[in-house]
Please model this.
Amino acid sequence: MGIISLPYHRNDSHVALVNHTVVTHFILLEIPNTDGLQTILFVIVSAFYLCTLLGNLLILSAILCDSHLHTPMYFFLCNLAVLDLGLASIITPKLLAILCGQSRVISLGGCMSQVFFYQFLGCTGELLCNIMAFDRYVAICHPLRYLIIMNWRVCAILAASTWVTSSFHATILTSLTFTLPYCGPNVVDYYFCDFFPVAKLACADTYVIETLGFYNTGLLPMTCFLLILMSYVRIVYSILKMNSAEGRRNAASTCTSHLMLVTLYFGPCIVVYMQPRLSKVVAATLQFSTDVVTPMLNPVIYTLRNKDVKRALRKLRGGQTTAR
Model:
């Protein structure tokens, strides 16, 4: 059942038989308080997942195919779409398998992959929100120098730095989690593998990983959020100083979508951090909204409020129709 017993230990003075156990797989639980709702949840999660895939792929196609959208803002939006596709695909397929009554067992390698990619993409999302806030800051506060400051070389370096930094972060966290000894039980008290629920099952001191968990779930998101807040204080000040009412409306419109994105990404983190003793149901609901709902909403937010993206989508649809 996922735990192998290994009898061994040789000493110069005597031979002793010591039982060591190695966990070869973990067992995931369902979302708390959802007994009897598996079918409804399966339909809902499936619909969210399909909408996430379709919406983000459409956003990517529209931006890549329309030369008018080859700007820094939409370059970062492409990065966000790729991130959302990955984030939704880490957890959702296994969650759907559990909801339709298939095995809750996940292999050790599968669990490690979930921990790594969840931390990797989660950290990338937080850093990407900061870069997008910086992009809006330069566009509104320094419009005449925008294309000079946010040239393609700078954009590529900023985007690459988020992915590389996050990969180091995820590698360290995953390595520390799975170098701990696991000798049973192997039931993860969650519906997917994350470093903290897994580390709680370790047969060793978890002080280091718990300390890193504090920085990961609390300090890092709060720092990113405060940096974004500082950027928007300066942005709001610049908008209020504009003489043109139309200019103020356009500037505010470009920032609204990003502010909604920031709220979706950082809102649940801040609630959990400020209220660490939340009930399992509330915590799981916030986690579910972050992992399943948010990746679907981002394309909607940037499509409904953005005339350029809507025009590109119509152009893409028209091109497909003509091709037929």
